[in-house]
Each structure stands twice: as structure tokens, then as C-alpha cells.
Design a protein that fits this description.
Blueprint (H helix, E strand, L loop, with lengths): L1 H10 L3 E10 L2 E9 L6 H17 L8 E5 L10 H6 L4 E6 L4 E9 L3 E4 L2 E4 L3 E6 L5
Parallel strand pairs: 2-3
Antiparallel strand pairs: 1-2, 4-5, 4-8, 5-6, 6-7
């Protein structure tokens, strides 16, 4: 599913960032997060939703009834993969390690095995949760 949806999204001038399935108010929601050069617009989300909805009608992404949402991952987006960390070099991040330790810093570098936060290298396998943060002025 990933590759076909990713190709459809790219053909519409956007990139697949991530997807998730969540329960909210007793409703299953399947969210597709996209990014675009210049930012994600409501019109772009609507366009991509209309294109991928029939694909999901034939090959549902989850079992049972669900609602499809197409959205931007937002300014304070979650980082889950090396691709996310690589695309976020230079941004501020909050990290929670599997040990429970928490810290924040700037992503200085990232490869397929680890990320450098300020002067500290952290293996992805040691990260429980990572999220970009924005200092509101």
C-alpha cells in the first residue's frame, strides 16, 4: 500500500510523510500526513483525499469502518524514521529515550543508524519518542 499511495501523492506535487490509525470519539480515523514545497494547503489535502479514497475503497488501509483524513504533520511533528530526522536537520527536537531520560536540542546530523542532537549521538533504537518543537514568541 505504501508505495502506491506514495506514488499517487508524489504525482500531485506532495510527499507522504507518515500515516496512522487512531480511535477518537469511538471512531477509527486513518490519517495520511503529507508535506509540500511551500506548505500544505486545505486544497491540496482535499485533492489528495479525493484521489486516494477510491484506492482505499478497493484496498482498505484498516479493517472495518473508518474515516480518512489527509493533513499536514504540523510544525511540531513527530519524528519516527531516519528519513524524518534527515529532513529535519537544523530544527529543534525533544527526545524521550527508552530509559525515560528526556532532553532537547538541535538536530545537527542524521544517518540510517543514529541522529546527532547538539554534540550527542543517539541511536534510533534508543529513542522512545521524538518530536520537533517550536518556540512560540
Amino acid at each position: 500500500m505504501n508505495e502506491s499511495i506514495e506514488k499517487i501523492i508524489q504525482e500531485r506535487g506532495a510527499k507522504l510523510y507518515d500515516f496512522e490509525s487512531v480511535m477518537e470519539n469511538n471512531h477509527r480515523i486513518f490519517r495520511v500526513y503529507i508535506t509540500c514545497e511551500g506548505g500544505v494547503t486545505l486544497e491540496k489535502c482535499e485533492e489528495i483525499s479525493k484521489i486516494i479514497s477510491p484506492v482505499f475503497d478497493l484496498n482498505p488501509p484498516v479493517e472495518g469502518k473508518y474515516f480518512l483524513e489527509v493533513s499536514s504533520p504540523g510544525i511540531e511533528r513527530t519524528l519516527k524514521s531516519p528519513k524524518h530526522f534527515k529532513a529535519s536537520i537544523g530544527e529543534k527536537v525533544k527526545i524521550k529515550l527508552n530509559s525515560g531520560e528526556k532532553f532537547q536540542g538541535v538536530i545537527k546530523d542524521a544517518d540510517d543508524e543514529s541522529v546527532k542532537i547538539d554534540e550527542q549521538f543517539v541511536s534510533y533504537s534508543d529513542i522512545n519518542k521524538a518530536k520537533i518543537y517550536f518556540e512560540w514568541q
